[in-house]
Write a structure and sequence with these properties.
Layout: E1 9-12, E2 15-18, H1 26-35, E3 37-38, E4 41-46, E5 51-55, H2 57-70, E6 74-75, H3 79-92, E7 99-106, E8 119-128, E9 139-147, H4 164-176, E10 181-185, E11 198-203, E12 206-209, H5 220-231, E13 237-239, H6 244-249, E14 252-257, E15 261-268, E16 271-272, H7 280-293, E17 304-306
Parallel strand pairs: 6-8, 9-10, 9-15, 12-13
Antiparallel strand pairs: 1-2, 1-8, 3-7, 4-5, 4-7, 5-17, 7-8, 11-12, 11-14, 14-15, 15-16
Length: 307
């Protein structure tokens, strides 16, 4: 993510707060990170309409509440308050380009083992982050030697900051070895996901994706694409276990997520995927997704919160 200027405000514990005043003590920063859960939310600018649309805001905030609950933290500000706070924050920061919105909940404590029921602090930040949809960007991937975390270790369905150490290790290994990104296997040897993004592949015209119990985050982008592919594009979508070698024989592979959006994978372990370029079905899915998130395609208005 590119460096950007700091925003004027963040939203902290129920109110707009000047960016420089939103602080915790340095001695608590590391331990707060261990407890923290968060969401990554994109807002897309429609240049023709001069409007900003926050995409799937309700779904993201429902997942944030679920993560707070599963981490056994108290929630002093309601989901409705956080939603209204995000709208106020985006307006106050005068966001008029593609924007990343990050609500984060954490326990402010000097100790790693905070007591169950401790009330979480909630902060929301914004920053400019241009979309890469329709940019032509592709990735070359490897299967990482690091195994994906599992539900009895560090539950992947909790969007917890600590879970991303697993992703960082895999990403660092991939880039050190000349790849753009990594793909995880589960402890069983089946395919899970990428670092911070879910995986989809095309075989014989069908869209296949590892199931929600395959060590993946229950991705909102993944769920969005499944619905769009079934109901708009008329594709058959199959959720099931995926073998490693299926990555090598698939016609198309791509990662999907709020940050990744739709990122084509054109090789895995230096074997080309299909023709070694973005595939035709991936292009159709990307085009549909691009138009929906920006409000160019008027369908699914409930997914867009206009600011």
């Amino acid at each position: 993510m590119a460096e950007t200027a700091n925003p004027k405000y963040v939203w902290l514990d129920g109110k707009l707060t000047p960016w420089a005043d939103a602080t915790i003590h340095m001695t608590q920063a590391g331990t707060a990170g261990v407890s923290s859960v968060f969401e990554g939310i994109r807002a897309y600018w429609n240049a023709d309409k001069k409007k900003l649309y926050v995409f799937r805001l309700d779904a993201h905030l429902d997942r944030l509440a679920q993560s707070i609950r599963l981490m056994r933290m108290g929630q002093a500000v309601s989901t409705a308050q956080i939603k209204q706070g995000i709208v106020e924050l985006v307006r106050a920061n005068e966001c008029a380009d593609d924007t990343y919105v990050r609500p984060l909940a954490f326990i402010e404590s000097a100790f790693f083992g905070s007591a169950p029921g401790d009330t979480a602090r909630v902060v929301v930040n914004t920053q400019s982050w241009p979309s890469r949809l329709k940019s032509g960007k592709v990735n070359h991937a490897c299967v990482t030697s690091w195994t994906r975390i599992s539900d009895n270790v560090m539950p992947p369905r909790v969007k917890a900051s600590a879970n991303y150490l697993n992703s960082r290790l895999a990403s660092e290994e991939a880039r050190r070895n000349g790849y753009d990104t990594a793909l995880f296997l589960q402890p069983t040897g089946k395919v899970a996901e990428g670092p911070g993004a879910c995986l989809m592949l095309v075989r014989d015209g069908n869209l296949i994706t590892p199931s929600a119990t395959s060590g993946i985050l229950e991705s909102i982008t993944r769920a969005t694409l499944i619905e769009l592919c079934q109901n708009v594009l008329g594709l058959k979508v199959i959720e099931r276990e995926v073998d490693r070698t299926e990555l090598y024989v698939a016609q198309e592979v791509f990662l999907c997520g709020t940050g990744a959006e739709i990122t084509p994978i054109v090789s895995v372990d230096r074997l080309p995927v299909g023709a070694g370029e973005m595939g035709p079905l991936t292009k159709r899915i990307e085009s549909l997704y691009h138009d929906l998130v920006r409000g160019i395609d008027a369908r699914c208005p409930e997914w867009r919160t206009e600011v």
